[in-house]
Amino acid sequence: MSQIETRLAELGVTLPDAPAPAANYVPYVVSGNMVYVSGQVSMAEGALVTGKLGVDMDVESGAVAARACAISLLAQLKAATGGDIDRLKRVVKLVGFVNSTPEFGDQPKVINGASDFLVEALGDKGRHARSAVSAASLPFGVAVEIEAIFEIA
Fold first, then answer.
1. Positive or negative CA dihedral for 62, 138, 5, 123?
2. The domain that contains 10 carries what CATH number?
3. Residue 1: band (very low, low, confident or very high) from pLDDT cuts 50, 70, 90
C-alpha cells in the first residue's frame, strides 16, 4: 500500500475506483508533470449527494459533500498515475462549484470540506490555490462539483 493510501486508511478512507465520465469527455488529462482532473460530483456510498445550499442543505452537509468530491479527485489521480498515487508532488488548485441560492454566501465554507481533507490527508502537499463559486444548478442536482490540478513526479 502506498504512503498516501496508508494515511487515508488511518483516516478511515479507502479510495473507490475512479468514477467513469458521465458524458463525452475524459476524466483526466496528463500533460507533462501536471494532471488535470475533470469535475467530480458529490457522491456517498455509490449514490449522488443532491441538494441546494440555502434551501435543503446546511454548510456542514455541503462540506461533507465537498469532502466526498476530494476523495473522488484522489481516485482519479490514482488512475492517472497508473496506480502510483505517491507520485503526487502537490495539489496545485481546486475549483469548487456549490449548488446554492443567490442569497447563500458561504461557498468557501462548503469547499473547505475538500480543502481541509486534502491537507489532513496529504500534509503540505495538499495545500493549494482555490476558487469557490456559486452555481444556480449542477448536473443531476448534486450539491457540489470540484475539479483539480495536481503536480506529479
1. negative
2. 3.30.1330.40
3. confident
Cell numbers representing residue 84 in the block: 502510483
**Rounded-to-integer distance, Cα 123 and Cα 127, Å:** 7
Under 8 Å between Cβ of 53 and 110:
yes
Give dist(CA 107, CA 3) in Å, integer: 31
Cα–Cα distance, 80 to 41 (Å, whole number)? 18
Instruction: Write out the residue range of the structural domain in which residue 43 sits.
Output: 3-152
pLDDT tens string 86-137: 999 999 999 999 999 999 999 999 999 999 999 999 999 999 999 999 999 9
The backbone torsions φ and ψ at residue 112, rounded to the nearest 5 degrees and listed phi first, read -55, -25
| Domains: count for the chain | 1
Report the distance separating Cα 105 and Cα 133, nearest Å: 9
User: Distance (Å, rounded) from C-alpha 65 to C-alpha 51?
Assistant: 10
Average pLDDT over residues 24-43: 97
The CA distance from 18 to 76, in Å, is 5
E-state strands within the chain: 28-31, 34-41, 43-44, 47-48, 88-99, 129-135, 144-152
Q: State which H helix or E strand residue 10 sits in.
A: helix 3-10
